[in-house]
Amino acid sequence: MALLDIRNLSIDITTAQGKVRVIDKASLTIVDGTIHGLVGESGSGKSIIAKAILGLHNPSWTVTADRMFLGTTDLSKLSSPDRRKIMGKEIAMIFQHPRSYLDPSRKILSQIKEVLPHSSVRSRFINIVKPKKEQSVMRRINELLHKVGIQNGRSVLDSYPYELSEGVCQKVMIAMAVANSPRLIIADEPTNAMEAVTQAQIFRLLYKLNQLHNTAILLLSNNFGSISDLSDYITLVYCGQTVESGSYKQVMESPMHPYTETMIKTILNFDESIDHKSQLYTLPGNIPSANQLPIGCRLGPRCPRAQRNCVKNPDVVNYKGHIIRCHFPTLDENKHANTSQRK
Amino acid sequence: MLINNEFNEDKIQSPLQYTWSIFKKKSAAIVSMWGVITLIFFALFADLIVAHEPSTQYAQNLLLPPYWMEGGSTDHILGTDDLGRDSLARLIQGLQLTLGGGILITFMISLIGSVIGASAVLTKGIKASILHHLLDALLTIPTLLTALILIVLFGPSYENCLLAVSLSLLPQFIRGIYIAIENELSKQYIIALQLDGATNSRLLRFGIFPNIIEPIVTLLNRIFTMAVLEIATLGFLGFGTQLPDVELGSLIASSIDLIYLSPWLVFFPGIAIFLIIIIFNVFAEGLRHSVIEGEE
Amino acid sequence: MLKYLFRRLNLLLITAFILTVIAFMLQHWSSSSIDNRNYFMLYGDYMANIFQGHWGISSIDQRPLLNKGLIAFASTLELCFVACITSIIMAFPLGILAGLKRNGVIDYAIMSIALVGLAIPVFWLAIIMTMLPNSIGISLPVDGNISLVFEVPVISGFVLIDSLLAADQYQMRAFSDRVAHLVLPAVVLSFFLTTEIIRLTRHAITMVMRSNYIKAAYAKGLATKQIVLRHVLKNALPPIIHQIRLQLSTIISFAMTIEIVFSSGGAGVWLLTSIQEGDYLALPTAVLIISSFILLSSIIIDIVLMIISPTKRKALYADQ
Questions:
Q1: Average pLDDT for consecutive 10-residue bins of chain B (296 residues)?
Q2: How many CB pairs under 8 A join A and B?
Q3: Does the distance separating the beta carbons of C122 and B229 come in below 8 Å?
Q4: Chain B residues inside the 8 Å CB shell of C318
Q5: A252 to chain C nearest CA, in Å?
Q6: C256, B142: Cβ pair inside 8 Å?
Q7: Which domains, and CATH codes, for chain B?
Q8: Predicted pLDDT of residue A17
Q9: Mean pLDDT of chain C
Q10: CATH among 3.60.15.10, 3.40.50.300, 3.40.50.11590, 3.30.70.100 for A2-100+183-271+279-342
């Protein structure tokens, strides 16, 4: 069952040089209780999609979508306070650079308390009258910290964000995210600029949450290799266009879009023999900047299989849940050989 | 001629062009820019514009109201004062001295202050620390008091008034530019420049200066506003220009006794100061926003 | 924390030393006495006199300068204090509103008023204000500190308090007369201050609203009201207070100008008459009194900021 269903999400940002369409008809379907990897190079618009899902966008963005459903509620029709109410309960977000997302002037304890249900001002008065309730809140907080693997919980709770490391801050963020047991967690490059051990810890934590609580996770990353093993489904974004989307098996074993094929080739595979000092495979050229986007398929100028048709926007093709946007997809090995020969 | 703009997306505007292209789109900023130009034009060519000498006394026309009021004449558009001098001519002379003084002071302060501020950032140790404490001490003395002291020391005159105002505002500018440069200096790309072996002057010119334009605009705007207000205040207190020259503040002071008889003599110079500051502030604000947007 | 206090006090002493040197040079220049001893000895003498309270005698009415200066400055401070309180009450809500509704109609309206406040020359507004009671037909005094019929004894120097203390003599009449005298100057000063604080508040609020933790708070699903109360205000307040601290000397400058227009007996009028009468010794006295007030209050504000804002305390660690 689809938890989050987005069809043809387009986002225009107004800049001094005119409107720029940063997200062009992106579609995303997240199945309940799965880990969905959203992969794209930095600047491809992953974070923008995530922010649009949460409704955190600036007034200068115009967001249009044919369909934007969370479960059965239509997100695009909600007023922003209503939407935020749902966000708090159903969706939680984890960011990169977690420390800057924690209020610097308040201790961790009060920030975690804030996200717990029923932590309004009124209930604080009740807490003074009935200390029992306060105890249960503390027990819940300790439970949460234990869950995310923070050992010295008491001292962490009593600290300000600047006194903690990025890894601990990220764990605190995750604890806050899972506090309301949301149905979806959006993790925006949660391990960016962290050391390998912490990265592994964070990923293991997210995986555990997914397995134990059946929480769906939308995992954003620029590194295909690091999250591909974790994800049940994978969507690739290039320059604001979703190029290919499907289950792990579909995408990894029979990629159809030339961009995906390249991304898979870029994962270093130490099993195969690589010649000493041989060149690693990449696409020619660079990601175009946002104000100089090519028309039609944005991969066009860099695509090894590009033809005249590619200046038109390709239609979405769906092969049993494997969705691609390409004029010349690799349909099978045979066809692949053909197209390359034709070239 | 070969038209060769097929690849116009390759053309990348320079920061200055880009800022200007943003600035152009702000109507308030453009209006204020023309306002600034007009004001400076008035201040420069005051003698050519006005029909009357500011000091000529028309004895038959004392205390004329502005021409749109009853009893006014188009000969003296803004009326005359108690000695029969033309208000408009005196106003424009006042504008010349006040605005000119403000611009001059801002210019001088920005030159001297930048040199002192920049060298204070780049020198460490006892010299910088002495400058710091001196600035700290000077900043605790209210500018009006500093200006009064300096006027008492030098004697009241227009030039000394300008000097006093500049000296009383200089510490503020130095402190402002010091903070701006120091903020910039701690950033990574400056360290990279330093590791490249850039000399201090190169560091300031290419590394720091292009990135502190926004605080500099704010600071200069503030200094200019304060300078105009302070010149006017000192003139009002009688420590600025000496007769027969007038400046907007002393113009107000000279007509304060007539406030019930002919209030416009007090109104117009005040409105003139108000307009100067508003126009320059809107201009600076437009510039600042364009710079910020250009950086984003 | 103690270390910080110590360092701050150290800075205070150095700054105070420089100020006394400035005051000494002024004193030396204005007394124009010929003395052949070297400057160090003279400075020593001067400081000894300062500490013993012999700040010199006014050449106008032969009263001690320290006493005159303190009384005059107290009246200025009273004006500043009243204006500060009223403008904080008015400016904070407006500034917060402008900061939250940035680039909206309300924001433009509030910021236009703020720009007007910056551009109007204070003394001119004061002059216009002196015309106000006459032209709209209300009776408010436009000059002086308090009507001359009330002979309020000087106890604290603050006329408001003194007139309250003199209540057994005049009941509340002296006090209400003083309040009436304060209204117009306070309106002028607080007009300027309000616009200044609006601008500072708006800037601080927009800075905080842009930061990541506010985005995270929105993502947590908190209501705007909660976000403002819990996250924005606490982080925006320290920079606002810090900026007001830097404006202290401007506020006093403006208060002195306003007093001169309303000819109420504050530091402005005192200095002006002293200069006009050639009593230049008033200048070093004024420098010492006003600067030491500003110096002490800035340090107190710094310490308060250090206590209420954990991020400032972080800068403390980073310095070491």
A1: 50 73 83 90 79 72 71 71 77 87 92 89 80 84 87 85 89 89 84 83 82 89 91 86 78 81 83 91 88 76
A2: 8
A3: yes
A4: none
A5: 33
A6: yes
A7: 32-295 (1.10.3720.10)
A8: 66
A9: 82
A10: 3.40.50.300
List chain C residues with CB under 8 Å of A106: 230-231, 234
A16 touches chain B (CB under 8 A): yes
For residue A233, list its beta bridge partners.
A36, A247
Mutate one of B26, B32, B39, B141 to test the C interface: name it (highest C CB count within 10 A).
B141
User: Regarding beta strands A61-64 and A73-74, do their DSSP bridges make them parallel or antiparallel, or are they unpaired?
Assistant: unpaired
Global ipTM: 0.84
All partners of chain B with 3 or more CB pairs under 8 angstroms: A, C
- Radius of gyration for the alpha carbons in chain B, expressed in angstroms and rounded: 23
Mean pLDDT taken over chain A: 77
CB contact under 8 A, B18 and A291: no
* Over residues C165-185, mean pLDDT: 78
Task: List subunits contacting chain A, requiring 3 or more Cβ pairs under 8 Å.
Answer: B, C
How far away is chain A from the Cα of B214, in angstroms, using its nearest Cα? Answer: 18
* pLDDT at C315 exceeding the cut of 80: no
Catalogue the long-range contacts made by A24-29 (C-beta closer than 8 Å, 24 or more residues apart): A24/A240, A24/A241, A24/A298, A24/A313, A25/A241, A25/A242, A25/A313, A26/A237, A26/A240, A26/A241, A26/A242, A27/A242, A27/A245, A27/A316, A27/A323, A28/A4, A28/A235, A28/A242, A28/A245, A29/A2, A29/A4, A29/A5, A29/A245
Does pLDDT of A94 surpass 60? Answer: yes
CA distance C12 to C17: 8
Q: pLDDT tens, B135-170?
A: 888 888 888 888 888 888 888 888 888 988 998 899
Beta bridge partners of A31: A2
Q: Are C182 and C78 in contact (CB under 8 A)?
A: yes
Q: C175-200 in b/e burial notation, b at 16+ Cβ within 10 A?
A: bebbeebbbbbbbbbbbbbbbbbbbb
pLDDT tens-digit profile of A228-278?
778 888 888 888 888 888 888 887 777 788 888 777 777 666 666 667 776
Note the pTM of the prediction, 2 decimals. 0.81
Which residues on C lie below 8 Å from A97 (Cβ)? Answer: 212
Which chain C residue is nearest to residue A120, measuring alpha carbons?
Answer: C226
Cβ contact, residue pair B266, C283, below 8 Å: no
Residue A299, classified by CB atoms within 10 Å of its CB into exposed (0-12), middle (13-18) or buried (19+), is: buried
User: C15 and B149 in contact by Cβ < 8 A?
Assistant: no
Q: Quick one: pLDDT at residue A132? A: 63
Domain range summary for chain A, segments of one domain joined by +: 2-100+183-271+279-342
Which pLDDT score is estimated for A122? 55
Q: Could you identify the residue written with the tokens 């009415």?
A: C61
- The chain A residue lying nearest B13, using CA atoms, is A17
Q: How far apart are CA B151 and CA B237, in angstroms?
A: 11
Question: Of the spans B26-30, C149-153, C184-188, which averages the highest pLDDT?
Answer: C184-188
- Residue A29 — very low, low, confident or very high, per pLDDT cuts 50/70/90? confident
- Looking at chain B, how many residues does it have? 296
Chain A positions touching B11 (Cβ under 8 A) are none
Q: Does B117 touch chain A (CB under 8 A)?
A: no
Interface-testing mutation among A20, A292, A298, with chain B (most B C-beta atoms within 10 A)? A292
